[in-house]
Amino acid sequence: MKEQNMNYLNSNSQPVSADYVFLNIRKRILKLELEPGTRISENQMAEEYGVSRTIIRNAFARLNQLGLLTVYPQRGTYVSLIDLKLIGDLLILRTAVEKEELYELLSQRDDEKIKKLVKELEDNLEKQEAYRNKEGYDLEFQTLDSAFHRAIAESVERYNLIKLLEDLMLHITRWRNFDVALGKRMPHLIDEHRKIIEEIKGGDFIKAQQAMADHLETISEIKAKAKERYPQYFVNI
Are 81 and 47 in contact (CB under 8 A)? Predict the structure, then answer.
């Protein structure tokens, strides 16, 4: 999971903005290009991005607030280790929110709303199929994955709940790289999405909620393998 490309200028080779630097470092952390436990410095990043240390310092502060960087006084700044207990708690929280969305959707028995959502989800799923044989959690697939879940939230006007959790869910995004790659889970993710659609079409909110819970629970099967292969990436608990 080492990074391959050290050129982080934007596509037009123009001076990069503070937001670009923050978002790009965040992306590298989430994709595990900057590996958990890696020490990084303001000087190093300022040189890579061709910006001042002030811009890097501000980016580091924002990433620290998100829990993606950890600052140790007198020791330096490190990419935060992955806390599987936190991931588990966040998955429970996300599952509760999305199960409630499905309850609201299906208990209303609004056939037109359900039909419209199902069409949107099936169109999304058709695009997901292009990534079935990918080994990693591809960035383009992440976008489709997020849009799939966002459509369900928006169908019951609950997307604000997802927005409230957005920063916390970054930790789940980073975890997904292990879940997908080590568990060879890409085909399963797509099939789980299909199962959710089928249960929504069936109209049974209990079955739909269970399909969602099965889809989101990713800790139990893969955590032992992840910690065995990459023990240095995880908080010891």
Answer: no
| CB 39, CB 74: distance < 8 Å | no
Model confidence band, residue 4 (pLDDT cutoffs 50, 70, 90) = very low
Supply the range of the domain harboring residue 88. 84-233
Tokens encoding 153 = 């939230």
Confidence of residue 126 (pLDDT cuts 50, 70, 90): very high
Q: Check pLDDT > 70 for residue 108.
A: yes
Give the tokens for residue 46.
Answer: 């300022």
Q: Specify if 103 maps to a domain.
A: yes
Pair 224, 125 in one domain: yes
Name the residue among 186, 201, 52, 51 with its Cα closest to residue 129.
186
What would the two tokens of residue 107 be? 């208990």
The confidence score (pLDDT) of residue 3 equals: 44
Is 5 domain-assigned?
no
233 three-class SS = helix
Predicted confidence (pLDDT) per residue in 57-94, tens digit = 999 999 999 999 999 988 999 999 999 999 999 999 99
Provide the token pair at 47: 């040189």
What are 9-41's pLDDT values in tens digits? 554 556 678 999 999 999 999 999 999 999 999
| Size of the chain in residues | 237
At which of 62, 79, 96 does a domain end?
79
Using an 8 Å Cβ cutoff, are 208 and 102 in contact?
yes
Edge-to-edge strand ranges of the sheet holding 76-79: 39-40, 76-79, 69-72
Could you tell me if 16 and 8 are in contact, meaning their C-beta atoms sit under 8 angstroms apart?
A: yes
Same domain, yes or no: 112 and 52? no
